[in-house]
Specification:
The protein is mostly helical and about 55 residues long. Helices cover about 45% and strands about 0% of the residues. The radius of gyration is 19 Å and the shape is elongated.
């Protein structure tokens, strides 16, 4: 998607326009949250050592 189309979907206050794609800020936030979930999930993979601790998440 080019920036012109993206900018048309975002109003001056960077708020969500009903029926359109979410704002750029919301898209970035969603991507960051997804990446964090992946990192947490990767860190929770079973550890073979007996001293493995549970993740706080």
């Amino acid at each position: 998607m080019d920036l012109v189309k993206l900018s048309l979907l975002i109003d001056a206050d960077n708020k969500f326009i009903p029926g359109k794609r979410p704002s750029l800020l919301q898209m970035i936030q969603s991507n960051v949250e997804d990446d964090l979930r992946k990192l947490v999930k990767d860190s929770e993979t079973p550890n073979t050592t007996a001293t493995s601790k549970k993740s706080p998440f």
